[in-house]
Automatic annotation (TrEMBL):
Span of domain Solute-binding protein family 3/N-terminal: 42-267
Name of the protein: Transglycosylase SLT domain-containing protein
Chief place of localization: membrane
Record carries keyword Signal: yes
The family this protein is said to belong to: Belongs to the transglycosylase Slt family.
Pfam name, any one: SLT
Membrane topology term: Peripheral membrane protein
Leader sequence segment: 1-26
Membrane-crossing residue ranges in chain numbering: none
InterPro entries attached to this UniProt entry: Lysozyme-like_dom_sf, Solute-binding_3/MltF_N, Transglyc_AS, Transglycosylase_SLT_dom_1
Taxonomy of the source species: Bacteria, Pseudomonadati, Bacteroidota, Bacteroidia, Bacteroidales
Location of this chain's protein in the cell: Cell outer membrane
Native source species: Bacteroides gallinaceum
Keyword entries, A-Z: Cell outer membrane, Membrane, Signal
Amino acid sequence: MKTVVFWSWIGLICWLSVACSGRQSAGGEANVDLPVIKERGELVVLTANSSTSYFNYRGEPMGFQYELAQQFVQSLGLKMKLKVVNNPSEMVRCLLEGKGDLIAYNLDITQAWKDSLIYCGEENITHQVVVQRRGRDAVKDVTQLIDKDVYVSPGKYYERLVHLNEELGGGIRIHLVDADSLSTEDLITQVAEGKIDYTVATNEVAKINRTYYSNLDIRLVVSFDQRASWAVRKTSPLLAQAADKWHKENINSPEFKASARRYFELNKQPVHGSILSVKDGKISHYDDLFRKYAKEIRWDWRLLAALVYTESNFNPDVVSWAGAKGLMQLMPVTAHAMGIPRGKEQDPEESIKGGVKYIAQLQNIFRKVDDKDEQVKFVLAAYNAGAGHITDAMALAKKYGKDPYRWEHHVDHYILLKSNEEYYQDPVCKNGYFRGTETYNFVRDVMGRADLYKKKIKR
């Protein structure tokens, strides 16, 4: 009997040794695979801020890779813990140190990383494209770039363009822009607006930006294909197999297709029509509701009407690409937090009442902006972007010697720069990447429209 007990204890000690100390491989890498992850009930996902992977929009996490990771983790019956890091190299380091289990990001497939990683999930093919305006004059061959002005950011885009120019024997007029002031997405905006004719971006970034600017042509490829996918450690083959299986079985699922359509196909710019009848003193069918609820936030009702027009074109049934609903385009989580009953998000009065309640909260957040006219601009910006991105821009303004309590030419300058890595990765920023162009334009549009309404419509 004593012998049986003795060997039972030996077996238990050996099992504990494997379970506890077996978390590190001989190379010092974390040794955790799917069974251990399922036992703890949580999968730690690593990603980075970008327009294609993860970002915070109106207070809610979004991004194509983020959504796919969510769907995958849910299929395993696990909870997802997200860790956002600065760049691919940091992602790989954190993964190998056991600070994450899965990289949910289009990680370039390289020989240098193949020794320590298992690439898994859907293999994506990325390449660089010329971004130009649509039309008969659009270049269709790289040789047509000779004698053209192409504006690019430093790094891979500039390097590829230099090599292409050498391959063609010279002639492309390459303009290297200051990365501190303009991001690749800023350059794409300038192309769409006709300020410049050409820039270069990855096909994924170009596709997302085409949903904002329908006049873009992104068909001309200027680089070799680069393969990219998700990744796990070499010591997590079962997790890799699960990711491969999930992608294979779900790439044509309604959820997968809906996520791809949301980011790469749906138009991000609302279509706006004219107001009802200025000569009759009406802006919309909801003027009485604007008059009623604007008093609660001490706003002119015409300012509230201008916000709603810019958000929804006075259409209570509209649903944005991000899932915002109703006249005031509140995200579902925000709508419910403001007391709007489920199923009533598109009810006109409920939407206005909830939106006004949200504006009141934003007024409290930006109460240190003493000038009330200035405060309105901060509130509008936060309504459009989420308060976190605006407080980030304020922190950047303060750091770089601007006035954090003035919007125009001060904080608005830094909301524009929040799509630039150097700025959204600054330690004073807590909310990461953000496409600030829309918020910058939103504030200007609402304020300008409110001024128009005030001139044309009596109080």
